[in-house]
Amino acid sequence: MSTQSTLSKKAAVAGAQAPDTPARKPMTVPDFRARKGQEPLVCLTAYTAHVARICDETADMLLVGDSLGMVIHGMPNTLGVTLEHMIMHGQAVMRGAQAALVVVDLPFGSFEESPETAFRNAARVVKETGCTAVKLEGGRDMAPTIRHLTRRGIPVMAHVGLMPQQMNTAGGFRAVRAEDQWDDVIADAKAVEEAGAFAVVIEGVAEPLAAKITRSLTIPTIGIGASAECDGQILVFEDMIGLFPRVPTFVKRYGNMEEMMRDGVTRYAEEVRARRFPGSEHTYSAKK
Ligand code: KIV
């Protein structure tokens, strides 16, 4: 789907709303950036059209995160996620989203080699999904790439602090708590802002460090495991609704979908085995 057709789809849906439901204005990159220091930005991951439709009613931003490798595809980490995975899920999310800003992650191996490779792959993501922006992990090292993309029309959300794609060099998923590591993260955050990122995800850092970064940048900081000292928050949808076994310290569960699903499957199995399902109301009668 092209950007053009996405825009007309958004406009068509806005126009088709019931008269008493005010259409939400689609969130643009400048709108998102202008929320710095204002009402906190509500962000969630989404990987499918249906989840995107539900979250889009409320969220300011939907991230098609490469966490989909673990959450949807059962991978042990995000390193095996491909550009094709991101494009397929990005297309699904774009079919469900109307108002929220949709950002798609660039997966490991698709952007680090050179700014030119990053542009080629990011442009594919934008063209083939119709999303507005991409996100990439990296600080000072990725600043030239961020500059290259933003100057060529691809808005970039950066990602600093705990970077899951660097788990092998870091020796795992390690939150940044020790004060002697703070200056590096601050320098990364400043470098990505200076390179043109419109916002930055800060993952897994101590609260005073998140506060320092948020105060020192003019772009919104979006926290995950980075305290309330950020301009917005993001959670993985499945973590938030209780549909993924891993519960990191920073996740608050707002539901227990896993329990609901298990209960539904158990009751279905019982009724099938007892021949109580399907009932007459679920059964076609013959037509004369
Ligand atoms: O991939 C992802 O879901 C992310 C968020 C955790 C920020 O990068």
What key attributes describe this structure?
eight-stranded parallel beta barrel, 288 residues, binds 3-methyl-2-oxobutanoic acid, alpha/beta, TIM Barrel, globular
Q: Say what the CATH topology is.
A: TIM Barrel
List the uncertain runs. Answer: 1-17
The biggest sheet, with number of strands, parallel, antiparallel or mixed sense and barrel status, is:
8 strands, parallel, barrel
Strand order of the largest sheet: 1-2-3-4-5-6-7-8
CATH class: Alpha Beta
Taken in chain order, the helices and strands follow as HHEHEHHEHEHEHHEHEEHH
Structural class determined from secondary elements: alpha/beta
**Distance between the ends:** 45 Å
* Helical content band: 40-55%
Which descriptor suits the 3D outline? globular
Average the pLDDT over all residues and give the rounded result.
93
Radius of gyration, in Å, reads 21 Å
Annotation field: number of helices: 12
What is the second-level CATH architecture?
Alpha-Beta Barrel
Quick one: how many beta strands?
8
